[in-house]
Amino acid sequence: MFDKILIANRGEIACRVIRTARRMGIRTVAVYSEADARAMHVEMADEAVCIGPAPVGESYLRGDAILEVAKRTGAQAIHPGYGFLSENAGFAAACAEAGVVFIGPPIEAIRVMGSKAESKRVMSQADVPLVPGFHGEAQDLETLSAEAERIGYPVLVKASAGGGGKGMRVVRAASEFADAVAGAKREAKAAFGDDSVLLEKYLGRPRHVEIQVFCDTHGNGVYLFERDCSIQRRHQKVIEEAPAPALPDDLRRRMGEAAVAAAKAVNYVGAGTVEFLYEDGGFYFIEMNTRLQVEHPVTEKITGQDLVEWQLRVAAGGTLPLMQDQLTRRGHAFEARLYAEDPQREFLPAIGKLVRLRPPAENDHVRVDTGVREGDEVTMFYDPMIAKLIVWDEDRDAALRRLRVALAAYEVVGVTTNVAFLGAIAGHPAFRAVEIDTGFIERHRADLLPPPAPVPDRGLAIAALSVLLRRNADARKARRAASDPWSPWLSASGWRLNDDNHHDLRLLDGDTPRGLTLHFRPDGYEIEVEGRPAIRAERVTLDGETLTATIDAVRTRATVVCQGLDLTILSDGAVWRLHLDDPTARAAEQEGGSGRLTAPMPGTVVRVLVEPGQTVEAGAPLMLLEAMKMEHTIKAPAAGTVSAVNFAAGDQVSEGVDLLVLDVAEG
């Protein structure tokens, strides 16, 4: 076994590998960019070395720099995690040349399976079932168009290299084909350095079922059962579960055996995942991921195995810890991916400081894999994942209850997250009833992403009580420091001359002002919200950011985080955001801004689709922005005339800068 390994990755997967290595008595070396100098994985590792600036091309994708660190620190092997260099055959070859073990499959297996087109040719020869498609080398538009006509629309255009939903387009008509191919090629080139694409028949309502396989250097191969990863948006997985529900046991066995056959067809070694589409009793090979998957913890929970330990033992030349007839599964597990992103804005990644980050308590049923802590920054440079929440119980219904409770307990303040969106999926009747396929999110979009609702009176009352108790605390400090501590002008009790003691507050709920009056009573408070009947609050206490009160006879506990005049309230899984109204500041915010189209996040301008003086209709695409290796289209919010274009293709832009100015047509 190795004495020391280097982890060529960052974030939660680097932390995950370090935990297993530490348990096995293996020392670890972390590499990090300048932006990650204080990152969690850096502090967890036994040693850490900086390898360059923040951009991945200057740090985490620098195979030469990583190998130099391995040589300098005496690391005998490199664990690539997932993403970055994990499926890079060139890096694996460089490791071999340098005499460092690459904890992954053989170079040729990475190369073959890394090409969706070539892997499908090999799978066809191994009698692994395939979706009808085109996997040839020709990339000219004429050939691709002819093949799309042969397959029949709708077709799926996919990047031949890489994964994660990047470089993928669904094309429903021939008139859309050329633009879809161009967009997929641009995205694939940016993400993987390879713009080749393949075509597949687009299945109507398939499920995404994948098989965890493991092979060693002694000719052994097993499958550790299956996972269902059908809940996806933009072809990226959101919630995964194991085992896949409502599948006949015979089908599970046949899929597992086909996956092992696929792995052996390329002389595979180590951990891999063979992905299938399943529909109407048939299953079809999509691709093989030649690495450990993001969702591997659900397999670990149902099998009781540590897959990173398996990786290390196999890479060191050992045999598989268990053979097929020794593997068993128990119970059901879910994994939900928590991201800093805004579901209401087409899941645009969010950046900022994690002002508050409190996961649910971990135990035998709840596991949290993360690479960030409270106070860390989510930056524009890397994947905005905050954590993976994994839950387990004896059956699917029980595990799903665990998931809903754990999501409701997760507290994140400082960046917009998808926690409420995940909770909506976990609570949806169709999800509970296993009415799932890869179109689940789009089909139930109205349920899962309802328009923002006004903050309820209870949320307003909690916010107002928090403001008042903080003012009381500040007043007590002021009175202790004052020359006249009994002056009524230093009181926060709502004292009024010849009037009922009360406080008036105005909170902004988005752009909507909400008025509240808090009346002081001997046993607590009465709170009027916009003239409606008073809410009674008794036994109110504030301990740090935790407010506890009996509101209308119901005991309530909520977290209220203050950032200047901004308030974030977290209560029973709900998140409400309010702002203490400052009329002067509000008036300043409302000045100007009409017709300005700003960058929703930092990124690179890919194409400018209009020019000054051009008239456009509402919804017309104006500019393509690439951020987090995904393309985002800036569209006209209304009909008008473009009066200014402030950036050109290739320009880097910061969040909030004015990209274009549109003179909106009147009427």
TrEMBL record:
PROSITE patterns: ATP_GRASP, BC, BIOTINYL_LIPOYL, CPSASE_1, CPSASE_2. GO terms for molecular function: acetyl-CoA carboxylase activity. Residues 120-316 form the ATP-grasp domain. Transmembrane segments: none annotated. It is an enzyme of class 6 (ligase). Its cofactor is biotin. It holds the Pfam family Biotin_carb_C. This is Acetyl-CoA carboxylase biotin carboxylase subunit.
